[in-house]
Amino acid sequence: MSFISTIGEDEAQGRTADVYDRERARVGYLPRxxxxxxxxxxxxxAWRGLIGAITAGMDPRRFELVTLAAARELRSTYCALAHGxxxxxxxxxxxxxxxxMADPSDAGLAPDELAVLAFAAKVARGAADVEADDVQALRxxxxxxxxxxxxxxxxxxxxxxxxxxxxxxxAADPVYGRTxxxxxxxxxxxxxxxxxxx
Length: 198
What we know:
This protein is mainly α. Helices cover about 65% and strands about 0% of the residues. It folds into 2 domains: about 1-55, no CATH class; about 60-170 and about 180-190, AhpD-like (Up-down Bundle). The chain has helices at about 15-25, 30-35, 40-55, 60-75, 75-90, 95-100, 110-125, 130-140, 145-165, 175-180, 180-190.
């Protein structure tokens, strides 16, 4: 489940117990990422606050597309499974998500979304390689400068979270092995293997 020891549900106290309770209520079970942050609940709470501030001004579909693009570049299976399955559930069909993982240009998205995905991927690969022309390409498809900043913020937040999960060996939740179509699960497995498949 993780390379580091975590605080079990029955051992959790204080702020850790609060985080566990909130995440269980939010997603319906205690996710492994919450347990990874269990020893540092204030860090997780701060990260949730950051994500809330970023998403408050960002279109939800765009946030999920950007997050998936970043997870793909970072080879974060956990985050790709979480956000790819959410995309397939709420915003696009499963075939579109599979196409996004193979080649975003074949996913049938609008030009502004393709530009956002390309920018997000470049930021995740190496933000120091971003040039003024990359930002201008987003302006050219209608994004304002605050919207460009939103994309950069969403990618940066994903880099933090994905890095922590992979550095600690946090395995994806078993629910993805039980509930996702195998084709979608395979497409979203970009780094560490998805575990506990049926």
